[in-house]
Amino acid sequence: MTAQILIVDDESDLVSTVAYNLEREGFRTATAGTGEAALKLANANPTPDLVVLDLMLPDIPGTEVCRRLKQSDATRDIPVLMLTAKADQVDRVVGFELGADDYVTKPFSVRELTLRVKAILRRTEATTDSGTRLRFGRLQIDVDGHRVWIDDAEISLTALEFRLLLALAQRKGRVQTRDALLADVWEMNGEITTRTVDTHVRRLRKKLGDAAECIETLRGVGYRFRPESIAGA
After folding, report:
1. Shortest CA distance to 157 belongs to which of 181, 180, 127, 136?
2. How far apart are CA 227 and CA 172, in angstroms?
């Protein structure tokens, strides 16, 4: 079955344009003009495969919609692409810190938006299909189930944080530059800066707690996964 994209925006002309172009590419679409309607549709059965989310909605901010999606077990793995007129760096950082997978500013190219949607879905499918379980001392990664544990405690990660950890873990001991991580994890660099990588690594380390030292920073170069630092008690 083709992927379903939930488009959340109160500008009806924009929604119609985005929906039309995504449907031309073979996607199914659903639309919502408010944050509450978006949350209801995101929790429907089946859930959408991706949410295109405006930040300026008439009832609740898109940032709050994203936060609720990422905090719920039922919807936290749904990728979110933020589509907004807010172009400031601080807005991008906030969006990524809330768990957004990508950030596109208005005015935008419909072609670029479609390519970004496809890139996010490719990343999601590639991770889901790999069907491997990785163990590094106290850390365990269930690639197929998108789950991570430290000792016996499960760690809740967004889909993007999970892919970032997986990319580092699968290349243990090898330095990964920020540009390489942008290309491999995000798959599109465009307007995304290397600062985005630092933001996500910081959030990932915070969630890993005392196991965060497994991600080593090489100043001016990038990051390296060091499984020996979490070999276990």
Report:
1. 127
2. 7
* Superfamily the domain 4-127 falls into: Response regulator (3.40.50.2300)
Q: What is the pLDDT of residues 153-190, one digit of tens each?
A: 899 888 888 989 999 998 888 899 988 888 888 776 55
Q: Provide CB contacts within 8 A for 102, sequence distance 6+.
A: 79, 81, 82, 116, 119, 120, 186, 188, 192
Exposed / middle / buried, residue 67 (Cβ in 10 Å: 0-12, 13-18, 19+) = middle
Task: Say which residue the tokens 């299909």 belong to.
Answer: 129
Please, which pLDDT band fits residue 233 given cuts at 50, 70 and 90?
very low
Cross-strand pairs, 142: 133, 147
Contacts of 52 (CB under 8 A, 6+ apart): 5, 6, 7, 8, 9, 18, 81, 83, 113, 117
In tens, the pLDDT along 41-69 reads 999 888 899 999 999 999 999 999 999 99
Q: Which residues of the chain are in CATH 3.40.50.2300 domains?
A: 4-127
Query: Strands, DSSP E only, in 33-166?
Result: 50-53, 80-84, 102-105, 133-136, 139-142, 147-150, 153-155
Averaged pLDDT score across all residues of the chain: 87
- Burial (Cβ within 10 Å: 0-12, 13-18, ≥19) of residue 78: buried
